[in-house]
Design goal:
Radius of gyration: 36 Å
Shape: elongated
Order of helices and strands: HHEEEEEEEEEH
Largest sheet: 9 strands, parallel
Strand content: over 45%
Number of helices: 3
Structural class: alpha/beta
Helix content: 10-25%
Number of strands: 9
Length: about 210
């Protein structure tokens, strides 16, 4: 057995050189990911989210903010938590709370909607307070002021004076003026179905003969 001399090393010098070469080629402190991150950070600017947007005498396409106030302005689409329209117009409004004052909106989808001297073509809401005009309303509860609607479908309808062409509701409180109420709509549906059935039967009897 060969015994190494005193002062001699058991480490293989070529292997030591290889390990040292790998260490020298390692990336700087922080790693390759840190270097890459430093390179891409300047190319990824983050735009701050606007919390409150105030619009006055402007026309915009889309508005996204936590709160939107519009005065004498128009917008195609509005996404927000709270929306206030004053003498303004919007095509679509999606929010939690919507207030319209002397304004108009085509489609409104919100939890609570308040319309004062305004108009809404179609509204879907949990609660709607209407003092103006509306085309189609689907809501949990509707409170009429000085208002007129085309079609209302709600669980509860309240108001001193309720004017609607078609009113579908289980619970109605107030003076109602309608062309078709819930009972009338059912009767109209039955009569219409019966009439259509008779006309279809007559058509088969007349045109079915050779």
């Amino acid at each position: 057995m060969r015994v190494p001399k005193r002062g001699s090393s058991l480490t293989n010098p070529p292997q030591t050189d290889k390990i040292q070469a790998v260490i020298n080629e390692a990336p700087p402190r922080g790693g390759a990911f840190s270097a890459k991150k430093n390179m891409i950070e300047p190319n990824e600017p983050t735009a701050p989210i606007s919390q409150v947007t105030n619009l006055a005498q402007v026309d915009v396409e889309t508005v996204n903010a936590e709160m939107v106030r519009m005065h004498q302005s128009s917008a195609s689409v509005v996404h927000s938590e709270d929306v206030e329209l004053n003498m303004s117009a919007a095509a679509q409004v999606h929010a939690v709370n919507v207030k319209l004052h002397e304004s108009a909106a085509a489609v409104v989808h919100a939890d609570e909607v308040t319309v004062q001297h305004g108009a809404v073509a179609a509204a879907r809401a949990g609660a709607l307070s209407l003092n103006g005009g509306a085309g189609v309303v689907v809501a949990g509860s509707v409170e009429f002021g000085n208002a007129y609607t085309g079609v209302v479908a709600a669980r509860e309808v309240r108001g001193e004076k309720i004017e609607s062409v078609v009113l579908l509701s289980r619970n109605v409180t107030g003076n109602v003026t309608t062309v078709i109420d819930t009972r009338g709509a059912v009767i109209a549906g039955l009569v219409g179905g019966l009439f259509a059935g008779i006309m279809l039967l007559l058509g088969r009897m007349v045109f079915g003969k050779k």
